[in-house]
Write a structure and sequence with these properties.
The protein is α+β, with helices and mostly antiparallel strands. The protein has five helices and five strands.
């Protein structure tokens, strides 16, 4: 599974917000519709799961990384979440 620059931006925004951000904020920051955001989050979760990292949860209109995953990855930063995820040809 490949991740594109928009999905990479979404993942970065979630991590930069200490693992929790509203869907509304993500839509504003990325300029995409709610439907497109759900699609991208689904693809991001497939990539994270394939890489051995837990998925991003969607609860009460917020995207979040579970505390146990954040604790396990806190010393590795974004590289810990993105290692093993392939970038698309357009992002190379």
């Amino acid at each position: 599974m490949e991740i594109n620059s928009r999905m990479s931006s979404i993942l970065y925004l979630i991590l930069a917000s200490k693992g929790r951000i509203s869907m509304e904020s993500l839509m504003e920051e990325t300029g995409v519709s709610k439907r497109a955001l759900y699609y991208d989050l689904n693809k991001i979760n497939v990539c994270l799961t394939d890489s051995g990292v837990g998925p991003i949860s969607l609860e009460d209109g917020e995207c979040m990384i579970r505390d146990e995953e954040r604790r396990n990855r806190k010393h590795t930063g974004i590289a810990g979440y993105t290692s093993g995820i392939q970038k698309s040809e357009n992002d190379r």
